[in-house]
Amino acid sequence: MKASLYIFFSVIILIFGSLFVGPPGFTGKVWPTFAAICLTAWGMGWYAVSKGYSRSIGIALGILWWIGLAILWLMKDKYKSPRG
Prior knowledge:
- The protein is an all-alpha fold.
- It has helices at about 1-20, 25-50, 55-65, 65-75.
- The protein is elongated, with a radius of gyration of 15 Å.
C-alpha cells in the first residue's frame, strides 16, 4: 500500500509540479522531476520489500522510472506459495 501511494504521488508531482513551481524554463521543471524520481524510487523500495527483495534493489530500479517499475513488476514474488 505504501509503495502505491509513493508512486501515485510521484506521478502527480511530475504532471502538475511544473505548473506550481517557479518560473518556466529549466529550473521550473528540474525540481518537480527530481522530486518525482525520488518519490518513485522510495515507493519502489517499499514495493521490492513487499515482494521479498532488498529495498536497495527497488530504489535502484526506481531511478530507471517506468522501465524499472516494469522490471520489478515482472520479478518473481518470493512470498507467494508455489501453488499460487
